[in-house]
């Protein structure tokens, strides 16, 4: 029996998916709720095993990002299927980068969603050719239009250096380096790829080819801001 969790801030969507899972008979819905935090709290309080598959709405109403939601679920031990209206290719690519197993459109027949759960539960990849084309065609993801100076600041800062050291290396004032980081974060938000933490900036730098791979100093990133 495949254990499924449904996370969507629209109750009607969850009810429809739960009914479809019940009809399938080989799937049981162990959790239905509106946020990832709510699901993880339920896990902690009940000591239930992680769901085999989590069907997750691309955008929840609690202010969380798709990256943090997918990462939390994957790290918790579940496979994640994004259930999306497909209007934000950059966010879809962000979900894939964070570890989502695939995407199913909310306009698809509900039997397609159940079939996707079955496929992912077996450890098989979903056919996401249509989504891949949309994502690759999203130029905003490929280019956040950072200036040369912003790329230099991001390269050093995301590699783990304190901002004061970044400023010293580039021969600029600390306040200038700080303003660059602020502008970088704003630009990533504008293209649908928010980077509120230093580890998020590292991921953006790697995704955009600014850093080939995390440096040996990147262990300090989680302690940075």
Automatic annotation (TrEMBL):
Q: Which domain of life is it from?
A: Bacteria
What name has this protein been given in UniProt? Response regulator transcription factor
Q: Name the SUPFAM superfamilies on file.
A: C-terminal effector domain of the bipartite response regulators, CheY-like
Please name the InterPro entries in this protein's record. Answer: CheY-like_superfamily, Sig_transdc_resp-reg_C-effctor, Sig_transdc_resp-reg_receiver, Tscrpt_reg_LuxR_C, WalR-like
Q: A Pfam family for this UniProt protein? A: GerE
Keyword list (alphabetical) reads: DNA-binding, Phosphoprotein
State the organism of origin. Microbacterium arthrosphaerae
**Which residues does the record list as 4-aspartylphosphate (modified residue)?**
57
Q: Where is the Response regulatory domain?
A: 3-121
Q: Does the keyword Cell inner membrane apply?
A: no
């Amino acid at each position: 029996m495949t254990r499924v969790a449904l996370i969507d801030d629209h109750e009607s969507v969850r009810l429809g998916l739960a009914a479809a899972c019940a009809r399938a008979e080989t799937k049981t819905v162990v959790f239905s709720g509106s946020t990832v935090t709510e699901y993880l709290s339920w896990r902690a309080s009940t000591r239930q095993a992680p769901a085999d598959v989590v069907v997750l709405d691309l955008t929840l109403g609690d202010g969380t990002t798709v990256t943090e939601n997918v990462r939390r679920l994957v790290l918790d031990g579940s496979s994640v299927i994004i259930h999306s209206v497909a209007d934000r290719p950059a966010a879809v690519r962000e979900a894939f980068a964070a570890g989502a197993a695939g995407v199913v459109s909310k306009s698809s027949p509900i039997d397609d969603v159940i079939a996707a759960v079955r496929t992912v539960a077996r450890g098989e990849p979903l056919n996401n050719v249509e989504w891949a084309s949309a994502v690759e065609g999203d130029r905003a993801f490929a280019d956040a239009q950072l200036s040369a100076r912003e790329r230099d600041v991001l390269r050093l800062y995301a590699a783990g250096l304190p901002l004061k050291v970044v400023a010293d290396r580039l021969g600029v004032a600390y306040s200038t380096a700080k303003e660059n980081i602020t502008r970088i974060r704003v630009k990533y938000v504008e293209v649908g790829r928010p980077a509120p933490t230093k580890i998020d900036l590292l991921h953006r730098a790697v995704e955009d080819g600014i850093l080939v791979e995390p440096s040996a100093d990147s262990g300090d990133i989680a302690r940075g801001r």
